[in-house]
Hints:
Strand content: over 45%
Largest sheet: 8 strands, mixed
Radius of gyration: 21 Å
Number of helices: 1
Shape: globular
Oligomer: single chain
Helix content: 10-25%
Distance between the termini: 82 Å
Amino acid sequence: MRTPARRMTLGAFSALAATALFTAPAHATVFNQGISVQSEAHIAGDGSITLSGTYHCEASSPSGAVQIKATVIQDATRLSIGAGEVVCDGAEHAWVAGSPLTGGIHPGTARAVAELQEIHMSGLMPRAIDTVALDEQVIQVVAHP
């Protein structure tokens, strides 16, 4: 009995898809996660910079933790800062990230990137960091007294 090439191709593709589905890592994250960054960042007279936004996430895997990484990119300067504690309960929460150093950031147009990252631990050491949600947009850095 001869099997048509189309049926063989479909069978091979189905087997490949099933293999990929059932070999996903046990620490895979859930997909109900999101983050946003506000359209303004504030720079104080002392040079400190503050970004803010919102996020939501479900409980992280038992072998990991969740963090927010915020980055401001302006001219040739790239400043990455972390936000406070992340609560993953499915509700929307506000986040604020502040840095005492501007590293060359000044009032004007910039790019901001907010990342919700899941850290997978192996004992006390991080084994992998996955970005599970991302927002990137052009923002205004505004002088704030």
